[in-house]
Amino acid sequence: MASEAFAKHRASMIEKYDIVIIGAGPVGLLLSTCLARWGYKIKHIDMRPVPTVTGRADGIQPRSLDLLRNMGLKRAIMANEPAKVFEVAFWDPRDGDQGIHRTGTWASCPKFIDARYPFTTLLHQGLIERVFIADLEKNGVTIQRPWRILGFQHDREDEEYPIQVTVGKVDSSEQETVRTKYLFSGEGARSFVREQLGVKMQHKDPIAHVWGVMDGVVQTNFPDIKMKCTIHSDNGSIMVIPRENNMVRLYIQIASSTDPDWNPRKTATTEEVQAAAKLIMKPYYIEWDRVEWYSVYPIGQGLADRYTLDERVFMGGDCCHTHSPKAGQGMNTAFLDGQNLAWKIHHVESGFADRSILKSYETERRLIAERLLDFDASYAKLFSQRHPNTHEVSQASNQISGSGQQEDSEFVKKFKESCEFTSGYGVAYNPNVLNWSREHPTASNPLFLSTEQGSATLRTGIILKPSTVIRVADANVVHLEQEVPLNGSYRIYIYAGLPATTKQALRDFNAALKKKNSFLSAYIRSDVSRVDQHEQHNPHSHFFTFATIFNASRPDIEIKELLPDILARYYDHVYADTVFDVHVPNTKASSHTKMGFSEENGGVVVVRPDGYVGCIIKLVEGSGTVDALNQYFGTFCSKPLGESKAQL
Amino acid sequence: MASEAFAKHRASMIEKYDIVIIGAGPVGLLLSTCLARWGYKIKHIDMRPVPTVTGRADGIQPRSLDLLRNMGLKRAIMANEPAKVFEVAFWDPRDGDQGIHRTGTWASCPKFIDARYPFTTLLHQGLIERVFIADLEKNGVTIQRPWRILGFQHDREDEEYPIQVTVGKVDSSEQETVRTKYLFSGEGARSFVREQLGVKMQHKDPIAHVWGVMDGVVQTNFPDIKMKCTIHSDNGSIMVIPRENNMVRLYIQIASSTDPDWNPRKTATTEEVQAAAKLIMKPYYIEWDRVEWYSVYPIGQGLADRYTLDERVFMGGDCCHTHSPKAGQGMNTAFLDGQNLAWKIHHVESGFADRSILKSYETERRLIAERLLDFDASYAKLFSQRHPNTHEVSQASNQISGSGQQEDSEFVKKFKESCEFTSGYGVAYNPNVLNWSREHPTASNPLFLSTEQGSATLRTGIILKPSTVIRVADANVVHLEQEVPLNGSYRIYIYAGLPATTKQALRDFNAALKKKNSFLSAYIRSDVSRVDQHEQHNPHSHFFTFATIFNASRPDIEIKELLPDILARYYDHVYADTVFDVHVPNTKASSHTKMGFSEENGGVVVVRPDGYVGCIIKLVEGSGTVDALNQYFGTFCSKPLGESKAQL
């Protein structure tokens, strides 16, 4: 007993954190930035004395730009004037030792993908990191550098802070031991935490390629130097990626496991790689004004068996998945790892959700990493076999989503899949408690809509489709999917169709929300009576924001006449669905149509805090719609919901 | 002789500037920012100890946003999250003392105006000033505060620096006397410089209104509090303007010359104005959480007789024109005053243009101010008579420019004019040496196109129409009108139609550019052989940038095959005109069509450094097109151009 008391005493003396984050690369920074904004106490360390100075990851995919905008960070990133890739060019050897020639180009994010930003943004990782670091500092978090993790253990000394972590200053004997609720490793491929946990990396194809990567300023007459290019030549292969500040990145394959003299430790000097590039790019010349960064690294596909063992110590980013850099997915996958974990930890720690939702971090994100590795392999294979011909590309590129009814060829299908994947919009989470399906605990409730039923275009587990609407309060033309920031709230979009048709349904919805055990009433803010009138997103609860979209013209929408009190309070989230959309040209209410709802009756979409669709529900008169929401949230919330229904 | 020598000696001791700018409001800041970027030595003083803290001007019109973007300042302005006005609502008294009701709304920048940003941006003037001040500081200019002008004289003591200026610290005896090439007054309505020059203000309607202006945060159930509103009631009139940070500005008319007890010195306390507002806004309530700024001022329409007497001492902004703040034109007109003068001073001082072009500052900008005053009066009259009815508004708003063939009613015509004017796109400069017309010295050359001839939509003296194209070098979708920044260069847009058709014309154009006395050869950079390969805009001359737009798909445009050497050097300014434009839906090459050029043969548009169209020329084989350009520039350039033609 004495030793237990002593241990408790010791635990009470030690500094305590909500989370200790190791590594300030993309995954660690995104997680840290979210949790800092939401008020958590964070210790964030990084081994490097300063943020990334040169090189490393640089591609922000269209879907990641949505995320950065949703966090309010896009403007600061774009202020660095990054390069933008709209098209990819293919270059192949000409017959008879005449060097390379262009065989085609395609859109990097073709029209059939409904992307708000149909391009890849290229910017050096350090500049991206600095945007996050500035935001962290606004919220009182400073990255502690250069510090590294020395040890950790999940013990019983403090139930609230079950993890003990020891960190030390690099090249110094200085150490700190702290306790924390969570430990996160965003350490990159060489992870101390992963090693300590004994988590194995599955190496699909261990070290299949050795790549040289060179950032620099060049002089060349190669016409596509500002485009992304895949160059095959009789002298080897190069990938060209434009960069900010007139730089260009070249990926040059130095060796691969298909070479007869394959050696995964093979390397090459800057001069050797430049000489190889000169040969490959003939008949064009290329000379370097300066080389900003050069690195050679062997790349093997690897996937961690587990992302956590105990839902207390988590890993993400390169720590869990490594692959070729060519598809530009590393940083983007890391961002989404960080985002996925952030709101789940927040919902557990704020008392909203059951601890079990933390399990979905691994199931959701490891699936994506698996797909990324599959894609990485098939992508390479697809284009090593042959480049697409002009007809195939134009056939695939010019289709607008949903409008193409003709049967695609196998090649075009793969092409489309690869575009969707690289853009980030191909990411789809499997069904679970958060992502409704016919296997969901609430499946017997007929008000839930599956993809096959009401909604041809919307499905759970994917990101909400972008749509443009008019905000009623100030007549601003806005991007609906961006209207609620990444603030930890579920976004409940009430598509209200024609006001005359849904008037009663909206009244009943409102009345049901007010019932004692509704999902809203159960998680009402303790300061609800003192909330500032200008609070737009969370006047009632920190976990829900309501938005109502009418199929009516803006001047005809009198918010206080059409909406009852609770819904009317979301005055800044009432919209007129009257903006033309090229993706659904034959409809009047384009946002309704994109969601698969009737223009008359509408429906309800529940979007998770990270922007992925959770469930889709019919909007009906009576309490049914809110009952269904109570059921949905009730499957993973901390409190019982909707009991009042049984009393009626 | 001795005294002359002494005077010269004294002049050589004194600090010398290219320009002394008095006042750091919008006009002074814009002028200063341009000239600082272009390397001029500037003394810039302001009487106020700090930039505008609260209140004052706040409306950035669509056309001004184009300008700010062209200067690279838009992102920093938008980072302040300004309010945006897309619609204006009209409120009128209901019959029988029942308070006000909404009678209609209209778009603040309707579809028939081809605007890149169809909204007004509302942001407190101080935040806008700070963006300019930060840019100035990057270029080594700090506003000297609080300092004011004490005296100046245009004498003969130093021909290069003919103006002597004495400035003094406010509330101190500290003084400085300097010499300068130019003196500019952006002092505002009470101008010492204007007074000293003896320039009179013409008061059309001296002090016609007394306005109260109040910025604050309110509580209200008035539904349009986030819209721009014109409210007429039986108890008086209010204009509502939304602001950043949940603020709202109310303009409340306290007295006007039509009142029976008219007194231009009438004033009112905050409480009186709030009480008046409460009466006007019935049946809605309005209460103030806080008042950030309140001011009462008598407004008279005034216009300075002259903007300069000697083309050395200039004035601009409120110093030259005062009017009601309701149309939100003050800051916007000031910006354009500053921009207009900046590049003209630059062209004279850099040796490019004849000093006589400085006369066009007054003729161009005073005309606009006159129109503003006319507009200000007629705008008030138009809507005091009646508000437009729904049919009229929808008739006017939904027409896309150029597509409406039906005859407009007088009211709709005036409505359209007023929208064009307030958006800033109605500004048109009259013909002069810079703005070609049938009265231009070069009028006998048949290659010049007038509006009546080739180009139905394009005319000289107006801003270049916006158009979206694809940049060939990197496949980026770009806004053509923004591709050349505000850097003091003329922008020569070569619409090259079909490559096969214009191939010879482009070769001949290129060859003629290379002739000894072409406008390009005459103003070649002295360091032309050492220009960095990444210089995009001015590889040959600081005064010209060439852009070539083909009616061809991007992958079919091989720049080095289609363009001869000089034009090919503008590698980043070659475009494919293949982007659909809703304003000209029935054309393939929308940018060609917008300029009024044939999709096959193209044509050339010369755009002044400030974005206004200077002249329009046929693209022909032979040297004719360049000969015409030589003639055009030759009318105001410092060197004789195109003599080589006579020798041929």
From TrEMBL, chains A, B:
SUPFAM superfamilies for the chain: FAD-linked reductases, C-terminal domain, FAD/NAD(P)-binding domain, Thioredoxin-like
Segments crossing the lipid bilayer: 20-40
Keyword match Transmembrane: yes
Annotated Phenol hydroxylase-like C-terminal dimerisation domain residues: 427-639
Flavoprotein recorded as keyword: yes
Domain spans labelled FAD-binding: 17-375
Gene3D superfamilies found in the cross-reference section: 3.40.30.20, D-Amino Acid Oxidase, subunit A, domain 2 (3.30.9.10), FAD/NAD(P)-binding domain (3.50.50.60)
Annotated GO MF terms: FAD binding; oxidoreductase activity, acting on paired donors, with incorporation or reduction of molecular oxygen, NAD(P)H as one donor, and incorporation of one atom of oxygen
Pfam families: FAD_binding_3, Phe_hydrox_dim
Keyword set, alphabetical order: FAD, Flavoprotein, Membrane, Oxidoreductase, Transmembrane, Transmembrane helix
Family indicated by similarity: Belongs to the PheA/TfdB FAD monooxygenase family.
UniProt protein name: Phenol 2-monooxygenase
